Amino acid sequence: MTSNIKCIGVLTSGGDAPGMNAAIRSVTRAAIFDGIRVKGIYRGYKGLITGEISEFKTNSVSNIIQQGGTILKTARCAEFLTPEGRKVAYETMQREEIDALVVIGGDGSLTGANIFANEFDVPIVGLPGTIDNDLYGTDVTIGYDTALNTIMQSVDKIRDTATSHERLFFIEVMGRNCGYLALNSAIASGAEAAIIPEISIEKDQLSDLIEQGFRKSKNSSLVLVTESEITGGALKLAERVKTEYPQYDVRVSILGHLQRGGSPSAQDRILASRMGVAAIRALLEDQRNVMIGIHENEIVYIPFKRAIKKEREISDELLEVLRISSI
Ligand code: F6P
Question: Are 183 and 318 in contact (CB under 8 A)?
Answer without folding.
Answer: yes
